[in-house]
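Students often ask what a holo structure prediction actually looks like on paper. The answer is less mysterious than it sounds. You provide the chain, you provide the ligand, and the output is a string of discrete structure tokens encoding the 3D arrangement of the protein together with adenosine-5'-diphosphate.
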Amino acid sequence: MPALGTPDYNPSVRDRLLGVISKTWGYSSFRPLQEEAMTAVLTGRDSVVIMPTGGGKSLCYAAPALLADGVTVVVSPLISLMKDQVDALRANGAPAAMMNSSQSSTAQHAVERELLAGRIKLLFASPERLMVPSFRALLQQAGARSFAVDEAHCISHWGHDFRPEYRQLGALREHFPTASIHAYTATATRQVRRDIVEQLALRDPLLLVGDFDRANLVYRILPRRDEWKQVVEVLERHRGESGIIYCIRRKDVDALAAQLAKRGYSVRAYHAGMTSEERHAAQEDFAKERCDVVVATVAFGMGIDRSNVRFVLHTAMPKSIEHYQQETGRAGRDGLEAECVLLYSAADVVAWKSMLGRGEEAVDATYVESAMRHVVDIDRYCSGTACRHRALVEYFGQPWTSESCGACDVCLGETEEVTDALTVAQKILSCVYRLGQSFGIGHVISVLRGEDIDRIRDRGHDRLSTYALMKGASKNEIRDLIWQLVGQGYLEQTESEYPVLRLTPAARSVLRGEAEVRLRQPIAPTKKVDDRRKRRAASATLDGNYDAALFDVLRKWRRAEADERGVPPYIIFSDRTLRDIARVRPETLTQLREVYGIGDAKLEAFGAAVVEIVKGNELPSL
Ligand code: ADP
Ligand code: ZN
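The corresponding structure tokens follow.
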């Protein structure tokens, strides 16, 4: 595969591209690698574009499609995703359409006619649809010049989201030998990359790998102590803002959503066990800002284009770094600060491994092997003590050069290393040993804390040398330390009906004082940390000071417009655009056209209304 290439520099192509992104989307510059990616489409060179979620992949094929002759076919995995993408493009005045099984045949015929009349530049279709010979004939007749394969990692077994129907895309090259093929994904491991090139039979593709760091996200990985309390803390920090809470199991989703609703939070549940109507309703409510928070399993996400998600909270460890990256990537797509919190316990690792081991979701042996490796990788990430931004970026094969990111629990100094970790580990391990390796975690904790209770006295455990060795420590603190030792392979929990803690062979090196044990514990956040966080937040946002009252008025107006048109609010304007308006306070259409995210179509549709709001909203000097 060729190294990152420099496309032939052609100022007129650049200007034309900039012209179209300003006119249609109201953006004034390229995001990193967009220019190269767009040029590849225009010059018909195959490409693989890897950018993190929110990096701006869709513009890479949409902008050149508007400039080129012929039709660009976008292959997209989900019909719901397709509809939103097409709606958003049309709202900007771009000639886009889709062809899929959810449409009536009348609607399909209408699209066919438009297509043959040359009035459609971007056509969205599912991979299955591309395998239908009559549809391919139609594309040939309409002059399909390039194919954009979105979420291209779905083609690979090694990816985390393999979809068998994507495999059939391998036939595209044969059917459309003169068209160029472009693959887009946020999954960057080498194996997946190679697989994409091979499966799609790409010819000398231009490889573009974006910067994986999402500087506007603050990552926190906290030991899970009191889940409910920790969840509420995050929600309270983000009152009135939008967020997604991920749980592993459906029943956890239902329970948490119900509990939160009872406490008065505006939430919806979402998981694959609900009917498709229920799921659709939840998704719509979230997209249309009729609720703030969705509690969901991994099933929720693809097709969520709400750009103002301010937090993503994982109540347990997801099963791969790829999942984590993708799910946290749904926060802060507007480039403004957002927070990603993961409540971690080494118990999650045990749970995932046993789920995979039991073959509950196994497809085949290769899948299990690859899935196990993914679990080990994310466990290492969560229990690691390196900067979260750095660890993620390095996992995706990129170098990291700065000292501190200033935006993760590690760099913000929210956790610290236990100074005498070896001694602490020895206390815990010897207690497990003295208890004959036949008691569960709760009892081990009680003994270490020196609790004066029947269950201990009756067994004479108050006479053990390890009794009360950790007096003064809370249950949660000890539990967390024990799970860290499980995670590091010094202890294990049996899978019996009453699970007990046992030493592993590696425990011996700790007891002999020969192992290098590292443990972390949270420290209370100090004021200093908060200040640093705020400073960083300010630098991550490009909009500086804006008029919050005006922003609120604009948001209400947007909501009403969206309801009236039956579209999600972000299709009208993004939060970022509204904040920009609230900062600049444009009083003429010319001034408004300069604002981020306002192209010709939006200016015509909403310009007058927005200017009126700005003028009518002269608040006393702030
Ligand atoms: P991805 O598909 O890579 O996750 P999107 O294509 O959805 O990302 O883009 C994320 C957001 O960034 C969208 O709101 C998009 O309109 C915006 N965006 C894309 N390119 C630019 C640009 N050049 N300037 C400003 N905003 C952009
Ligand atoms: Zn960091």
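The CA atoms of residues 255 and 305 lie 26 Å apart.
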